[in-house]
Amino acid sequence: MKKDSEGFTLVELSVVLLIIALMATILIPNIGRLGGEDLRESSRKIGGLIQYLYGLSTIQKRNFYLNFDLDKGEYWVSVGKVNEEENSVEMIPYADDFVRKKYNLPSSVRVEDIDTVSNGKISEGRVTVTFYPEGFVDPVTIHFKNSSDDEMTLLVLPLTGDVRVYDGYKEITYVQQE
Q1: 3-state DSSP assignment of residue 151
Q2: Which of 98, 103, 162, 171 is 20 to 30 A away from residue 51, measured at CA?
């Protein structure tokens, strides 16, 4: 007597479940990145670093600098060291338990431009944002863009060191008093 086979064997079902599990393991962590998560994460990290440096400069009573290399997609922190003989300030790389020596933006994210009151809008080369010990930071707007052409704007409030993050490219006009 011949028995007709209807359905799948336990081995076949196990193989299919294994393949689905492997695909899910690979795809699920990257789903957020497809929706611009790298862009949001990068702007939040830099915003948090700005707030940290604002507090650090007032506590330690010295200037801190957030440096950007727009061409390489890098940023780092430095601190000012006064050279009495030459009457100048030397910027020395800074790192502590919360600040790394150098940060790299994800390959899908770039700083489109940085707009400061003193230097205007800069889209290439190096830009430095200064944090003063008196509780002030250079007024600055940072525009980010990802490979999908999504944009975010990071606005730094100079008197409080607070950071505002906006979706899209926002033009912020600063009024400089004379």
Answers
A1: strand
A2: 171
Nearest to 54 by CA among 166, 144, 129, 154: 129
**Cβ-Cβ contacts under 8 Å for 126 (sequence gap 6 or more):** 67, 68, 69, 70
CB 44 within 8 A of CB 113: no
Q: Tell me which DSSP letter residue 6 carries.
A: -
130 strand-pairing partners: 65
SS3 assignment, position 57? helix
Intervals of the chain under pLDDT 70: 1-5, 29-36, 174-178
Q: How far apart (Å, rounded) are the C-alpha atoms in residues 59 and 53?
A: 10
Q: Is 137 left (phi over 0), alpha (psi -120 to 50) or beta?
A: beta
Topology of the domain comprising 37-167: minor pseudopilin epsh fold (3.55.40)
Please say whether the beta carbons of 65 and 91 come within 8 A.
Answer: yes
Domain positions in the chain: 37-167
Quick one: how far is CA 24 from the chain centroid? 28
